[in-house]
Amino acid sequence: MKQRGILVRDFSHYYGENRSLNNINLDVYRNEILGIIGPARSGKSTFLACLNRLNDLIPGSRVEGKILVDDQDIYGPEVDVVALRRKLGMVFATPVPLPLTIYENIVFGVRLLGNNDRGELDRIVEDSLEKAGLWAEVKDRLHTSALKLSGGQQQRLCIARVLALKPQYIMLDEPTSGLDPISTMKIEDSLRTLKKDYTIILVTNNTKQAARVADRTAFFLMGELVEIDETRVVFTRPSDKRTEAYLEGKFG
Amino acid sequence: MTRLEKNDRLVRLGLLMIALSAISVLAIITLFIFEQGTPIMFRYGFKSFLLGQDWYPSEKSFGLLPMIVGSLMVTFGALIIGVPLGLASAIFLTEFSHRRLTRILKPVIELLAGIPSVVYGFIGLMFLVPFIRDNFGGPGLSVLAASLILGIMILPTVISIAIDSIRAVPDSYREGSIALGATRWQTVRMVVLPAARSGIIAGIILGMGRAIGETMAVIMVAGNAADIPGSILAPVRTLTSNIALEMAYASEEHREALFATGVILFIIIMILNTIANVTSTRQRKK
Ligand SMILES: Nc1ncnc2c1ncn2[C@@H]1O[C@H](COP(=O)(O)OP(=O)(O)OP(=O)(O)O)[C@@H](O)[C@H]1O
Ligand SMILES: [Mg+2]
Asked: Burial code of A44-73, b = ≥16 C-beta within 10 A, e = fewer?
């Protein structure tokens, strides 16, 4: 039996009056890559924002139901939201390095914890960049602006930045949507390596990407979870007609 | 050529003429100031103008140093008061208040820029000057009074430009930082302000330009003694005040010396504007 890391139960989310997620039930297992696919506006990004409570920033955002992360109800009264966001690192569609140097981007979150030990920071930078597959390319210019990196490098920097926080989960929201095939491949490679140590949730617009890297795949449609199963099963014998239609490119 | 195209050319020509005449009026004024102000500076030497400490026009002594120092002191004082207040207000209005409050308050703040400076000066003279005299000593008419009034007068400029440049920072920076476990305040301090820095600096420099050029309000509260002030409670005279106070009765070399005052003011303001332009274009390139 696989260990469950995240449990989502009867979970709904609203933007003001509009329901964006409707009664979602799913589990995320430890050390898997869970792919989330679905057409535009189906609630994929909203779902991720609910998991690390980034939705708190949006006025009018409201939730129903429960999400447990490592057995803790993340909408409970005693939750340390900052700690939660460190536990579930987030990588966005457009890489947004902060307007700082490569080095400072990576240690940004670590410094927030009050850790300023130069030796340790150096070690964290090398380690995170190594894991994100970027170390070799930038090790000679750590102290130049991160905004000068190429798109693909910036996205791997954003992954490294999340890794520096030692999260347990990594959530990626269409991380390769703006990237060329080679950069995309590099990121997919790192994800396969990373899953040994982390649990990964990968939202993607590209169903082929889910087929390539996800262990299991969930299909979202208009705020509903239509289907979740082993990737192989979802792609070859989907149990729902709508999944089949989506995968055949009939909508979305 | 179609009729519409002809029309277009006509409009363009018309606008060009208007633009050219506006620009040439400005150019003529500038030339005039320099034409009137520079000969006397050559005659007596730049050094005696810039570094001379005695301003006795009737004895042909035209030292502008007290006024240069006065302008700089008062302007610097205005920044010490206006910048922290203005920045704090801008940060509050963009990052920590309801959108609706900002929508109401921002135009109100910008309206403050429209209050005539004589009104600021009058309020300063009625309330601020006696307050300083009674509580801190000195005549009340002082560097401190002028700095406080100017600090308040530059607030609208500093606040509204800071708000614009903080707003121009993409939300993705904030999200990124918060997703990394930063609090809102940490995000503002470590990400938003650095990203908005050049815009904020440009706003501060514009406010500085306003402070250094302001005349009426300063004359009313500064005391206007043409000596280098020994403390912030001492009276002070600025370059602009110098012109305004004496222009009514100045003639010949005295008159020329006032134009020379204008030349120096002009140069100081040009320098500030250039710095503002350079920093704000650098912001756009980023
Ligand atoms: N900040 C917001 N305020 C109000 N409504 C929102 C907001 N963000 C998203 N929505 C709405 O919530 C629904 C789900 O959007 P979401 O961005 O989660 O979809 P998505 O599956 O990530 O789509 P995409 O593939 O385009 O990224 C949409 O109907 C969208 O209009
Ligand atoms: Mg999305």
From this structure: bbbbbbbbbbbbeeeeebebebebbbeeee
Whether B246 shows a pLDDT value over 70: the answer reads yes
Predicted-complex ipTM score: 0.82
Looking at ligand 1, which residue's alpha carbon is closest to its atom 11?
Answer: A20
Q: B37: CA distance to ligand 2 center in Å?
A: 65
Considering only CA atoms, which residue is closest to atom 6 of ligand 1?
A15
Q: Please state which CATH number belongs to domain A32-49+82-247.
A: 3.40.50.300
Ligand 1 binding pocket includes A199 (Cβ within 6 Å): no
Distance CA B265, CA B261 (A): 6
For range A14-36, the mean pLDDT: 94
Q: Which ligand 1 atom sits closest to the C-alpha of A205?
A: 25
Q: Which pLDDT score, from 0 to 100, does residue A129 have?
A: 93
Residue type for A91, please? V
Q: Which ligand is nearest to the CA of A13?
A: 1
pLDDT digits (tens, 9 = 90+) for A162-201: 999 999 999 999 998 888 898 899 889 999 999 999 999 9
